[in-house]
Sequence to fold (72 residues):
Amino acid sequence: MDCPYCGDEMQAGFVRCRDGVRWSPKKPPVAALAALVPDSVVLGGHGSYAPESTAVAYNCSSCKMVVIPYEG
Fold:
């Protein structure tokens, strides 16, 4: 995947979290409670406790950006 910011090739990898990988508009008070933040978006792990919750992520070492595509 090419970086949408600088155009360089991005390296594929993963991000992990113990209760499902999430993005939210507000920082949760505790990382493990991200599911309680309104309007949070599940990025991987189906939104429940799973020790192996992962989401595919692409890292650009040139501009230090990570892109995480998700469904839903």
About this structure: The beta strands are 11-16, 21-23, 41-44, 54-60, 65-67. The chain has one domain: 11-67.
